[in-house]
Amino acid sequence: MVWIRGACLSLVALLCVIAIEGHVYAIPHFYAPVGQAVFSIPTVVAALLSFGAVLLQRPLGLPGRAEMAIWAMVIVVCIAARYLHLRGLTLGAGEMGLNTAVGFVLLALAHLSFGRLQTASFGLALLALAPPFVALFGYLNGHEGFFGAMSLPTSAMLLALGMAGMARFVRRPLLRPLVSSSPVGRATRMTVLLWVGWLMGEALIMKAVALPYRSAALMVLLMAMAVWALGVMLYLGMKAEARSQRRREDARDLAAALRLDPPSGLQSTAMAAIYMRAFGQIGPVGLIMLGIDHCDRLNERHGEDTSARILDLLSARVAGTLGPGEVLVRRDDGTLLALTHGLDQDALEARAEALRKLGTGLTGQGAEQLPAFTLSAGAVRARRGDLSLSPAAARAEAALREAERAGCNRVVLKVAA
């Protein structure tokens, strides 16, 4: 937003300098490049005052006394220019049109009320962009009734002033996507650029088409715009429905995650799903699955609850060593699943080995009655943007089974597909 503000203010200064030179050296093309509308001297004065007021703005801060005084002077200049014009008095060539005066007054009121009228100030700032936008649209399409006495440089200058002043409204939800670095922000900015390109292309098409065929060309453009608007509405509806579905899933998973596993006190796999959706948007999530080697044989030889007793002691020991950004869940198939984030492949493999070694020398109630066993671990580093737990957990389970087939008591790291 900083460079946009700087570019807009530079454009305002350039247009004002060109208009001043045109009035001083009597060069009409400098202050009236298109048609009869003029970038008049009162308009230049109001523009320079507004330029100074915008320069005095503090980021997201209330307007100071100097800024408020300058904005008040802008309003006085606009009212005085219109009053003198109605009395037949002019200063230099041309006049300050009514739409130009309205644009300046709305812009001044928007900044004067900033911080005092929360909604009204933002609404006035948006309304201040309407007169120059309508005038610029009229110039692009050759409709004189749209721009009236507002010249082409005046419309560009007012639009640039309004956009530069929008910097103090960037925290508004409506403008936040325009400055966000998220994928939504980038998509929003790209959409705005496409919209600007559409307006420019539509104007070029209408100028290139011969006069007898302009009505047909206009109908084609209107149909294309209608189809585009329908596509946008369907796309927004799809995104809204997907977000609503994710919220329902999060609520369901959160309710399930609050139910702990009674023997170990660990969260269920629902907590792992929430973890994956939360941290998968930020960066890669690492999954480490711990399993007892040849669990079925161990239960056949030493009793059906042998593996369950081992997991009870193991889960308590592993849970005690987890960091603040890690979570451990117990799966129904007799394995433990640890989730972490912010680790590269080497660090993830080392972390998996450290957790696997915790199975050596278990202590606790009934630990002396447990038979000898070994642990294997399967580790997977999911890609950034992988939000679903099931595919990543399936890859971690495949790595665990590969470790058992390779000779047990080891770690196998799988690269994300």
Largest sheet: 5 strands, mixed
Helix content: 55-70%
- What structural category do the secondary elements indicate? alpha+beta
Distance between the termini: 38 Å
Number of domains: 2
Number of continuous helical runs: 17
The total count of strands amounts to: 5
Proportion in β-strands: 5-15%
Q: pLDDT under 50 segments (min length 5)? A: none
**What would you call the shape?**
elongated
Order of helices and strands: HHHHHHHHHHHHHEHHEEHEHE
Transmembrane segments: 36-56, 68-84, 96-114, 121-140, 146-170, 191-210, 216-238
Domain GGDEF: 283-416
Protein name: GGDEF domain-containing protein
Keywords: Membrane, Transmembrane, Transmembrane helix
What does this protein look like?
The protein has a five-stranded mixed sheet, with helices on both faces. The chain has two domains: 2-172, no CATH class; 269-415, Alpha-Beta Plaits, CATH 3.30.70. Helix 17 links the parallel strand 4 and strand 5. The longest helix has 44 residues, at 214-257. The chain has helices at residues 2-24, 28-31, 41-55, 65-86, 98-112, 118-128, 130-141, 144-147, 152-165, 176-179, 183-208, 214-257, 269-279, 295-302, 306-321, 345-356, 389-405, and strands at 285-292, 327-330, 336-341, 375-381, 411-415. Helix 1 (2-24) runs antiparallel to helix 9, helix 3 runs parallel beside helix 9 and helix 4 packs antiparallel against helix 5 (98-112). The model has no long low-confidence stretch (mean pLDDT 84). The protein is of the alpha+beta class. It is built from 17 helices and five strands. Keywords: Membrane, Transmembrane, Transmembrane helix. The chain crosses the membrane at residues 36-56, 68-84, 96-114, 121-140, 146-170, 191-210, 216-238.
